[in-house]
Design a protein that fits this description.
- It contains 7 helices and 5 strands, in the order βαβααβαβααβα.
- The protein has about 180 residues and is α/β, with parallel strands linked by helices.
- The longest helix has 15 residues.
């Protein structure tokens, strides 16, 4: 079966992966705030937990939904930030197909923080009382990188504003005008 290319040479696809409380959502929000209109946010938690109310399992329906949302947004001319834990063994094949099929630039970042920092950051989140150390420990996977060295690894010493600025620059989003939508 022939693969379908998505997006344009001008669209950007930004993948933000990492463990819970690593800063993915904050960085995604910062990218959208800096860029303006025309940047779609596709959050794994929203699509999996809110839209489908589904557990994170290999081959689950949310993987196809995430793929479809990202492809649709790219084809509509949006730049896309896809953020989530996105375990390499569950989501890796879909993410690699997106990367290969995207006509524009794709940038992948993995936010690498240790478990103690995960706990510290989790305590500051609004949903800190919804789940705790046991769940975080169960979900935590150290350096769960995609195959082929496709991700830039960002450590815990990179501040939120610096990381957001770095990704804006590395993706080329900083040099693009917002879309008039």
């Amino acid at each position: 079966m022939a693969r379908v290319k998505v997006g344009t040479a001008e669209t950007r696809l930004v993948l933000l992966r990492g463990n819970s409380a690593s800063g993915k959502s904050s960085i995604a929000s910062g990218l959208r705030e800096r860029f303006g209109r025309g940047l779609a946010l596709a959050g794994q938690d929203n699509l999996r937990r809110t839209v489908l109310r589904e557990r994170d399992r290999p081959g689950a329906a949310n993987i196809g939904l995430i793929d479809a949302v990202v492809r649709y947004s790219l084809d509509a001319g949006y730049h896309v930030v896809l953020e989530g834990i996105l375990y390499a063994d569950h989501y890796g094949p879909m993410l690699m197909r997106l990367r290969e099929d995207h006509r524009g630039r794709t940038h992948c970042s993995y936010l690498d923080i240790d478990f103690d920092e995960t706990l510290r950051r989790h305590a500051t989140k609004p949903q800190a009382d919804e789940y705790g150390e046991a769940e975080l420990r169960d979900w935590y996977r150290p350096r769960d990188l995609l195959p082929g060295g496709t991700e830039s690894v960002i450590g815990p010493d990179s501040a939120l504003t610096a990381t957001t600025a770095r990704i804006m620059t590395e993706t080329g989003l900083s040099g693009l005008p917002p879309l008039d939508r």
